[in-house]
Specification:
- The complex is a heterodimer of chains A (451) and B (491).
- Chain A starts with a helix and ends with a helix.
- In chain A, 73% of the residues lie in helices and 0% in strands.
- With 451 residues, chain A is mainly alpha-helical.
- Chain B is globular, with a radius of gyration of 21 Å.
- In chain B, helix 13 runs parallel beside helix 17 and helix 16 packs parallel to helix 19.
- Helix content of chain B is 76%, strand content 3%.
- Chain B has a two-stranded antiparallel ribbon.
- The chains are: A mainly alpha (451), B mainly alpha (491).
- The interface between A and B is medium-sized, with 15 and 18 residues.
Chain lengths: 451, 491
């Protein structure tokens, strides 16, 4: 009983966290929120605010893990599957987006999913570490994107950029750092260590190995879409949007440099050699041990990132250029797999699906409520009022035609009788005397007849 | 301080009389001066009120018509004081909302006096006198100064409410013939062990319930409200929603719930169902409205539904709650009464400002106001957020306590009622989007932003919303003892 209640509460809290952290199926708001100014996107919708959901799950972790057998509970299992679905789905969608900020937005959704996986499989420390690392490099990427957009005179479509490498060197270098941190290049970039830890935790989940493999696929995809974006924006020929591009002022590049340094040097405190955060959570004493740096997962990670970046370079090496019969503005993936690309470009049609189901249902409820109010409930009231009115008409008719008619008749009779009588009272003495004389005669005759 | 309450009731009446006799040119200013007096008296009442003492305070008792049990008996407990303060706050606010003729002002003052009377009378006949006395000014305000369809709306409002009043009066006559008293305290004491028995109890209960349910209003007795609020002039709408609608809730707390505890428990799920219907359907209907004033009117029904949910959770749910939950729910209800008064009146005020500027008030008659009138939009947003219950603003305090308390006693009904919160947020988000953002509508091009006189009204009210939202203790202190007392009465 206690377990069931805990599961129920944990799941309800998780739904809240899923809404905040953009987990499937409540993730649709996050990419749309990228319409805001870029610093807002960087700070709120990428680095800090959306992390609140992940933080919440970590904070109430005892509730999720209550009665865990081998570290597995029903609620944590849900967290894992939702997380891994989100991570993979968002990474896939990111591949087909054209807006520089939307790519990053879906990347955020995907990374948050990965953090959820980490929490679900028991790697709380790894998940929170990734949260911290992600905060830095995602803020870096968003501000870098802001710098690119500013340089390209408010162009956000990556297909219209290109060749910015030489025109915006500071932005390019810092963006490259961010890209490598996000892709999880091992050893020198913060994202690499934490991602490795997450994969490590996922690999040891006793319930199933599927999330682990899906997370591996997610790592490849992350490297792939980031490579695509960097190639589109910074490499190749200059296109419409980047013809007159120029480096942003120092007020914009300085924060990029600071964040890039953080993304690199932050890796020093996130290494598995010194798991201080894990120690803080478990209460164990931890000590520095350099040998833990080199683990099998390091090589797995290296291979995956290499594969992703390599695949990206191979696929997009001629992006934005004419390639055989492919037009320059056509995405290579769109050329190869048009149906798949359309599916991903349209965000798997989830927005449209929600529009036609949830939103349509809710607006219908609103309209029905309004209609019921106007016609049914108020109709009852009006009917009641109408009934009263009818009753009034009925009683007034009874009055007018029934009772009143009788009274009128009576009064009319009385009046005509009076008129008759008043005609007799003419005031002429002769008539009166004549009547008296006739009366006397009649009386005499009557008495005579009686005698 | 004997005579304080009587003075409070008398002052607005004197004001109305002065307006009638003196024919001053600036009637609104005179009315506001009388309101300042009344507010001063209300504050004195608050100062002299011992918040730690149970029962009625500052009681004034005089024989009136002993033969029928009528008595002039006024006094305040925490709830009464809260509502007196709310009245003293909302009425001046309404006076500041629009231009008014002398007659309008006088009628408003009469209504104010009736409201003070309703919230302080402790004898049914006296209470009923004031209760009806507030109805006629409201009718006249809608009938004479209302918008289009005013005749229909005013008649509907009057007849509907009056029908309820008549039902209530008959019920109370029945109670009087059975028990021989009109005194609220005595009746409540008798009510503990069942006031009436058999059919008579159900008839009396039904009559009073309908009377009050129309007044609040509770679903499905609410259809007069959108029409009346929509048509009434801004100032009248503010008083109607801010204070008059509280008479119904007050009536429930004072009359129905203490007198018929066992009947309410028997009907428990039905009562809770009506409250939840008020919450959910009214919020959905608000979402579907295109007239801003009508939208706010529906949200008013929704917010009073929370009050009813809290009250019925305490008195009607089969589970008798723990003390802490009962206290939370009742405190939440009282808080919500006060908060809704302020917030809903403020929303009507803002809609009035928009209507003054535009001449229309359809949700699609505006657009992009944020560019033209940022201050108006900003302050209005605060009122909207307060209404949808954002933490840090006053609306949150009451609603959270109601939900917290009710959940312990009736989890399923409370869970459904939460939908209302979501839909309210949608309705407001929709309104904000349509009004404030997007391209600036051409018709809104010449809008002036908040004028200084308007700022002087808006700022104190908004500050009060924040004050209650951040440190609500000063309001809780007013009615804490009363809550404990009532919890004991309902338990």
């Amino acid at each position: 009983m206690l377990g069931a209640t805990a599961t129920c509460i944990a799941l309800l809290i998780f739904f809240g966290a899923a809404g905040k952290s953009g987990q499937f199926p409540l993730h649709v708001w996050l990419p749309d929120a990228m319409e805001g100014p870029t610093p807002v996107s960087a700070l709120i919708h990428a680095a800090t605010m959306v992390a609140a959901g992940v933080f919440l799950v970590a904070r109430v972790y005892p509730l999720f893990s209550l009665g865990a057998i081998n570290g597995v509970t029903p609620s944590l299992t849900v967290v894992v599957w939702i997380g891994v679905t989100t991570a993979l789905m968002a990474a896939l969608i990111a591949i087909a987006q054209a807006d520089i900020k939307r790519v990053l937005a879906y990347s955020t959704v995907s990374q948050l999913g990965l953090m959820m996986v980490s929490l679900g499989v028991g790697g709380v420390a790894a998940g929170i570490m990734h949260l911290l690392a992600h905060g830095f490099f995602k803020a870096l990427l968003f501000l870098g994107a802001g710098s690119v957009i500013h340089g390209c005179h408010h162009e956000q479509d990556i297909r219209k950029m290109g060749g910015l490498r030489l025109l915006m060197p500071v932005t390019f270098l810092t963006y490259a750092v961010g890209m490598m941190a996000l892709s999880g290049v091992p050893l020198f970039f913060s994202g690499g260590w934490t991602k490795e830890e997450i994969l490590h935790a996922a690999a040891h989940w006793p319930k199933s190995h599927v999330p682990y493999y899906l997370a591996l696929a997610g790592v490849i995809l992350t490297a792939l879409y980031m490579t695509r974006q960097v190639i589109y924006v910074f490499f190749g020929n200059r296109r419409a949007g980047s013809l007159h591009a120029c480096e942003s002022p120092r007020v914009m590049t300085m924060p990029l440099i600071v964040l890039a340094l953080c993304a690199v040097f932050f890796s020093a405190v996130l290494t598995p050699a010194w798991p201080w955060f894990h120690g803080y959570l478990t209460g164990e004493r931890v000590h520095f041990e350099i040998s833990r740096l080199i683990q099998p997962m390091l090589f797995v990670s290296l291979a995956l990132v290499g594969a992703g970046v390599g695949l990206g370079f191979w696929m997009y090496r001629k992006a934005g250029m004419q390639d055989r019969d492919r037009a320059p503005e056509t995405d290579p993936l769109e050329y190869a797999q048009p149906a798949l690309f359309r599916f991903l470009e349209n965000k798997m049609w989830l927005d449209e699906f929600y529009d036609r189901t949830v939103i349509a249902f809710a607006t219908m409820c609103a309209r029905v409520s309004d209609w019921m109010d106007r016609h049914v409930w108020d109709g009852l009231v009006r009917g009641f009022g109408g009934f009263g009115e009818l009753f009034g008409i009925f009683t007034s008719n009874v009055d007018e035609r029934g009772i009143n008619a009788g009274v009128d008749e009576t009064t009319a009779g009385t009046r005509s009788l009076g008129r008759l009588m008043s005609a007799a009272h003419s005031g002429q003495i002769q008539t009166y005397l004549g009547v008296v004389a006739i009366g006397m005669l009649v009386l005499l005759l009557f008495y005579a007849w009686l005698a | 301080m004997v005579g304080l309450i009587s003075a409070l009731i008398a002052i607005p009446l004197i004001g109305a009389f002065a307006l009638y006799v003196g024919r001053p040119r600036n009637a609104r200013a005179i009315a506001l001066i009388f309101n300042a007096f009344a507010a001063f008296l209300a504050l004195t009442l608050w100062r002299n009120f011992d918040s730690g003492a149970a029962g009625l305070q500052m009681v004034e008792r005089h024989a009136w018509i002993p033969a029928i049990g009528a008595e002039y008996l006024v006094g305040v407990d925490g709830l009464s004081l809260l509502l007196v303060l709310l009245t003293s706050l909302i009425i001046p606010f309404a006076f500041l909302a629009q231009r008014m003729t002398r007659g309008f002002c006088a009628i408003m003052l009469v209504m104010q006096s009736a409201l003070y009377g309703t919230f302080t009378a402790q004898n049914f006949l006296l209470w009923f006198l004031f209760y009806e006395m507030s109805l006629i000014p409201a009718f006249l305000l809608i009938k004479i100064w209302g918008g289009k369809n005013r005749d229909r709306a005013a008649t509907k409002f009057f007849l509907y409410t009056f029908l309820g009043s008549v039902a209530m009066l008959i019920s109370f006559l029945g109670i009087y013939f059975a028990k021989g008293t009109f005194d609220f305290a005595t009746l409540a004491e008798l009510g503990k062990n069942g006031l009436l028995t058999g059919k008579l109890a159900w008839l009396a209960f039904g009559g009073i319930f309908i009377g009050l349910a129309v007044k609040v209003p509770v679903f499905p007795f609410h259809t007069w409200l959108p029409d009346a609020y929509e048509t009434a002039p801004t100032g009248a709408s503010m008083v109607l929603t801010g204070v008059l609608s509280k008479m119904g809730v007050y009536g429930f707390v004072r009359l129905l719930l203490p007198l018929f505890p066992s009947e309410i428990r028997i009907l428990g799920p039905w009562m809770l169902g009506l409250a939840v219907c008020s919450i959910v359907f009214a919020s959905l209907a608000a979402w579907a409205q295109s007239d801003l004033k009508r939208m706010v009117a529906y949200l008013s029904i929704n917010h009073l539904g929370y009050c009813m949910l809290g009250l019925f959770a305490v008195t009607a749910s089969p589970i008798v709650g723990a003390k802490i939950d009962t206290h939370a729910a009742l405190s939440g209800v009282f808080m919500q009464i006060f908060n809704h008064g302020i917030t809903a009146a403020a929303l009507f005020y803002y809609v009035g400002l928009l209507e003054q500027r535009r001449g229309l008030r359809g949700i699609n008659d505006f657009g992009g106001l944020m560019q033209r009138t940022p201050l108006l939009c900003g302050w209005m947003s605060v009122a909207m957020f307060s209404s949808l219950g954002l933490p840090g603003l006053n609306g949150f305090i009451g609603e959270f306590l109601i939900f917290k308390g009710s959940f312990a006693m009736t989890a399923s009904f409370t869970a459904i009622a939460v939908i209302g919160l979501l839909v309210t947020a949608i309705a407001f988000a929709r309104a904000m989007q349509a009004l404030f953002s997007g391209p600036l509508a051409e018709s809104c091009n010449a809008f002036p932003d908040l004028l200084r006189s308007e700022k002087l009204v808006v700022i104190p009210v908004t500050l009060l919303m924040f004050a209650i939202g951040i440190a609500p203790q000063f309001i809780f202190n007013i009615f804490n003892t009363t809550v404990i007392q009532m919890a004991r009465l309902f338990a």
